[in-house]
Specification:
0% of the residues lie in helices and 53% in strands. It has no helices and eleven strands. Strands 2, 4, 5, 6, 9, 10 and 11 form a seven-stranded mixed beta sheet that branches. Strands 1-3-8-7 form a four-stranded antiparallel beta sheet, with no helix packed on it. A hairpin with a 6-residue loop joins strand 4 and strand 5. The relative contact order is 0.33.
Length: 123
Amino acid sequence: QVQLVESGGGSVQAGGSLRLSCVASGYSASRECMGWFRQAPGKEREGLGVIFTPNGKTAYVDSVKGRFTISEDKTKNTVYLQMNSLTPEDTAIYYCAARGANVCATGAQFGYWGQGTQVTVSS
């Protein structure tokens, strides 16, 4: 089993930054691939990017490349999502998710999810 707990959400003005955290626990092989997703009101869930924790390699969807950065701190079992240049369109609930490492991509099926953290960006 894997448990994921997100934090760091909040309200910020357009142009601002936030860093979300995701603390992971449980069987490590089931969380070698960590992903960040978001869901805005009335919209489908959107994948943002992933990190392959054994080597730290990251991949992002085009819509957030250059603005969002995923990183990890292995000593804290924590994965981060640094978000810069936020716009109101980034308002959503943000989730981290985990899966084993055979495929590490936002389009893969993730079996473990956190509870989500709300990010609100005002203009």
